[in-house]
Write a structure and sequence with these properties.
mainly alpha; Four Helix Bundle (Hemerythrin (Met), subunit A); about 75% helix; globular
Amino acid sequence: MKKGVLISKLQSLEETLNEIRLLGKVRADLLCDDWRTRRAVERDLQIAVETVIDVCQRIIALHHQSPAATSAQAIERCVQLGVLSGNVAYEKMAQFRNFVVHRYDRIDVEILAEIVNNRLADFERFRDEVIRFYESKDSD
């Protein structure tokens, strides 16, 4: 894969996911009681989603298209380009990002715990789909 910016962003995504994984299983009650851990989880998840969106916008640019106006549109355009599957989890990432950014004072700790404990594989799937797409293009 000869896409240096994409590789860098995907490595950054992996580093962020590793930080989250270091927490182990996260309980919602812990997040209620420990504001530092809650803020770390919120921020790392936001960074992970922002990275996904950045990768999508970069892919759109590599295909000589104008940038998507929203994060959901960026993901959808990558689906249309055949880079990503139409996985509903990617749409939920964009929704979560908007929630964190615009309703930051009311983030449900149950949602945070659910993402950390059960949804990190969605980010890995995203990474793997992008890598597979460009590796297949490089071998053409």
